[in-house]
Amino acid sequence: MSWLTRFRNAVRPGALEQELDEEMRDHVERRIQQLEASGVAHEEAVRRVGIRFGNISKLREESRDARLTRFVDGTIQDLRYALRLMVKSPGFTATIVVSLGLAIGANTAVFSILDAALLRPLPVADPERLISLSAPGITDPGADPSPERLAFSYPQLKGFRAALGTGAARLALFNFPRAAEVRGVEADAPTEHAVSQFVSGDAFQMLGVTPALGRLFTADDDRTPGAHPLVVLSYDYWQSRFHGDPGVLGRRIIAGAVPNEIIGVAQKGFFGIEPGQMVQLWRPAMQYDKQAFEEAGWSWFEIIGRLAPGATTERVATALQPVWSDNNAAMLKRMPTLPQAIREQFLKSKVIVRLAPNGVSGFRRAYETPLWVIFCVALAILAIACSNVASLLLARAASRASEVAMRVSLGAGRLRLVRQLLTESVFYALVAGALGWILAKAIAPLLVEALSSKQQEVALLLPMNSTVLLFSTAVALLAAVLFGLPPAWQASRSQPIQVMRGVSGQAGKLKLGRFFVSVQVAFAFGLVILGAAFLFSLRNLVHVDPGFRPEGVTAYTILLGDPKLSESAGNQLTRQLRDRVGALPGVTGTAGTAFAIFTGSSMTDQIIIPGRPPSEQQELFYAVTDEYFRTMGTPLMAGRDFERGDAEKKDETPAIVNQAFAAKYFAGADPMGQRFRDPSDRPTFVIVGIAGNTHYDDLRGTTPPIVYFPLKGLSGWLYVRSAGAATPVPEIDREARAVRPGMRVGEVYPLESLIRGKILKERLLAVTGGTLGALGLVLAAIGLFGLLNYSVERRTKEIGIRAALGARFGQIVGLVLREAVGLVAFGLVLGFGAAVFTLGALEKLLFGIRPADPQVAVAGCLVFLIATLVAAGLPARRAAAVDPMTALRSE
Amino acid sequence: MPAPNSAQTALDLLVLTVLEKRGPLHGYGIANSIDELSEEALKVEEGSLYPALHRMEESGWISAEWTVTENKRRARIYEITRAGKKHLAAETERWTNFSKGVARVLKFA
Which pLDDT does position A504 carry in this prediction? Predict the structure, then answer.
């Protein structure tokens, strides 16, 4: 009987019994028919056959026993034997379980994140029919291709809905989740933050999300912009903030600026449509800025929909395309100055409709590649651990060779032996798997935390659920087969006669051992190179000079309860606030701006110079107050800084441009005093100063051209440079309240942390790549050590003879080291090749180094050389210390 | 392992012999063949054939497969394996020796 059948019989005895019943029933029926054919009455025939056949249920028992006992008995025997062995050599067992456990833990941790962020479908009804809308990115001539655009405007959504009617799909609006201020309606209620999302009224119905309490939004909550002061809580938020109190219904909380009535709680486990973000509050989209419902250019949400039964994404795309094309044509009409290359992209643009069973996610877009890289690294660790354990088991098998030979000669089935060794391997693997699972539970949240920055918080549901459990079990079993088969195979070929004679297939065993060490070295060196490349990239990024001095500068957001403020009143408030904060002890400079650098916010426009066509590319425009350059530490190369009166100028706009801008647009001329416009009706810019180049939103690439111009109105952000520690928030807050009641500090970001937030991906790769590289190196070193040590032990006699014949210390050490080099060299070449190939595919994640970078290679080799010397040094010393007399006498 | 002279061994021998001589058969066919060959001298409960068949399958002496028979019934067809043939040869020899011994004792006691 095949193993598979036997296994099926053991786990599914029901099927077996059914087959047996069928067989016996068939027999009885035939016999009855036969008797009836010879003239016996039916009832008599049944009686006679019953006697002749015997007790069916007893027979069934016997038959099942025949099948199961052997299998179960054998397995229990094997397990007992395995357990005895494990307990007998705890050191050996610990080595195996810990190295495998680490590998399985790393794999499970990374997989649980992959699963949550990339693989798991949304916890809604029938996620397979969800779709997302996007459009090709518009790329500036000469720039890197832009990513797809996911944001749409309200008029576009209205057009799409009209085109679909009640046909191929329903579409709903989801804006990008943001941390919003939330507080109770009482006057002194403290302010908190909750991740909030605006959704259209039909969003919950479209997804098929049900309420856990109260009701969710309906199409009726989609009527009037500015109205519908309602809020729906997530189940988690309801539990953590309101302790699951069913009395929250009807209560009001202030979210955004208005009091909203709590009307319901969404079903447990629903976190929105963005893996990586856990939405806590949903508000009707109608609460969003009124203007957003009129302007076609204001793209502020994503569109998620559900296919009607039988509809396809192609059909939806075809239905939407005319609306999209009209929309683009209208937009081009509104923006006549756009360069031809960009106009063409808009004209050709096709709306993209995709199945989106696991939602849309900014986190996924940013981290998809790095996460797969880390997953592959974890798999490589597993491969190393497996070959390590395999060689350990092989070495032990060598010492058990005589036992195995004895059993074979006593008549043990070879299959039975293999099965017993495999049972042992599976047992090790499952214990290691349990350890790995526990490790993963601890590591995975730490990894997610490492991916989270203050500007972009990442929260993932990481339940160690059945998928993850299944994965780690599968990994453990795969490992068991990988490391368990070679020793089992070897044992099955055991030649009792030779073992008894003392010959034993040592050569074969070492050959396999050598193979495994090479595998380990290849993987480990590949990982070391990969880790080194990521570490060098991070180092290079950290050492990029941003063009200003971020240390000591803190950015505060300034909030004002009443946003309706005239421009000049705003200027006034900004000035007063800066004066007061600037007078605080320790503060050496202050500057206001509309939004902070390195937060992803930017304003770009074309440059229109008299007598030239509008620029092909859009350039950065950045509104700042006076003293911005001094506060940031950006050098002014020529001209003057802004002055307090600059914000009030109506006839022209004084501008300070950086050197990159001057070189690009006024090469060969003196940029000072030059004039240019942007496509808006803003007064002409006149260049009054030249600033040094700075990075604006990332540290990669060259410093972009920037136009600085005077900030008008209240500044949303305040930069403060402090001589010592950052000025405490309450002090700034006190000054803000003193300037005007209701004005206060919102968020606080040290500028350095804003910059660090931009290299999280690289930091993640460097930290995990480096750590896993080191782990791989240690595992490989242990493997190398084990093999050399065994080899020296086996060659004790030979070394003894050599020593007796006058071999010197160096010669004997050289003997061992040569073997080590031979073992390592092949793996090194292979590992290096694989690493360079991988890095070539990941070039975008590297910075300041090439895929085959000499400094990375040298660093990797040095690290590896040290590890090899340590791993080979001990056996070499042992070899050199062999006493000829003892060695020769021992056999 | 049952004693070489047990009824179980006898049944095994009968089944293996039938399968070797007559080729693949289903359970009912095997029962009929045993009846026929032994001229109904061996009266075993027909049902005990099935645990025996399954035990022998487990031991690897016979193999079984579900097929559809001439009259469109699903039947499990048994076939003797190489291991089964070896076992049969060895057991037959043992059985012959044993019964010769018994016969001698009966004759000369």
Answer: 47
Token representation of residue A257: 């600026």
To the nearest whole Å, the CA of B72 is away from the closest chain A CA by: 12
Query: pTM for this structure?
Result: 0.72
- Taking contacts as CB-CB distances below 8 angstroms, the residues of chain B near A26 are 26-28, 73-75
Q: For B36-69, give one letter per residue: b (16+ CB within 10 A) or e.
A: eeeeeeeebebbbbbbbbbbbbbbebbbbeeeee
**B57 contacts A59? CB cut-off 8 A:** no
With CB atoms and an 8 Å threshold, state whether A52 touches B45: yes
Nearest residue in chain B measured CA to CA from A64: B51
Distances (CA, A) of A668 to A290, A589, A663, A687: 48, 35, 8, 16
Closest CA to A624 of A551, A560, A691: A691
A452-469 residue pLDDT tens: 776 667 777 777 677 888
State the pLDDT confidence band at B41, using cuts at 50, 70 and 90: low
Q: Is B2 on the interface with A (CB under 8 A)?
A: no
User: Which two structure tokens, joined as six digits, stand for A131?
Assistant: 């779709």
Provide, as residue numbers in chain B, all residues whose Cβ is less than 8 Å from the Cβ of A65: 51
Nearest to A54 among B45, B55, B76 (CB): B45
Taking 80 as the threshold, does the pLDDT of residue A411 lie above it?
A: no
| Two structure tokens written together for B46 | 């027909």
Window from A520-529, A653-662, B95-104 with minimum mean pLDDT: B95-104
One-letter amino acid for residue A238 of the chain: W
- Whether the CB-CB separation of A717 and A593 falls below 8 Å is answered with yes
Distance between CA A126 and CA A208 in Å, rounded?
8
A72-98 residue pLDDT tens: 666 777 777 778 877 777 777 888 888
H or E element at residue A211? strand A211-214
- Using CA of residue B38, residue B42, residue B47, residue B51, what is the dihedral sign? negative
Which of B28, B30, B33, B78 to substitute to test the interface with A, most A CBs within 10 Å? B28
Which tokens go with A471?
A: 């994965």
| pLDDT at position A690 | 96
Of A27, A56, A67, the CB nearest to B27: A27
The pLDDT of residue B37 is above 70: yes
Is the pLDDT confidence value at A307 over 60?
Answer: yes
The band of A563, judged by pLDDT with boundaries at 50, 70 and 90, is low
Q: Does B46 touch chain A (CB under 8 A)?
A: yes
Distance from CA of A53 to the nearest CA of B (A): 5
Give the total residue count for chain B: 109
Burial of A171 (0-12, 13-18, 19+ CB in 10 A): buried
pLDDT in tens, A793-826: 777 778 888 888 888 888 888 887 887 788 788 8
Query: CB-based contacts of A566: which residues, under 8 Å, 6+ apart?
Result: none
Cβ of residue B20 closer than 8 Å to a chain A Cβ: no
Cβ-Cβ contacts under 8 Å, B47 against chain A? 24, 27, 53-56, 59
Q: What is the pLDDT of residues A747-761, one digit of tens each?
A: 888 898 888 888 888
> Do residue A67 and residue B66 have CB atoms under 8 angstroms apart?
no
- A192/A836 Cα distance (integer angstroms): 48
Indicate the pLDDT class of residue A254, thresholds 50, 70 and 90: confident
Alpha helices in A12-41 (DSSP H): 13-37
Q: A768, exposed or middle or buried, with CB in 10 Å at 0-12, 13-18, 19+?
A: buried
Contact list, A55 vs chain B (CB under 8 Å):
47
Give the pLDDT score at B1: 40
CB < 8 Å to A24, chain B: 27, 47, 50
- Give the residue on A whose Cα is nearest the Cα of B46: A53
Q: Using the beta-carbon criterion (under 8 Å), do A53 and B28 form an inter-chain contact?
A: no
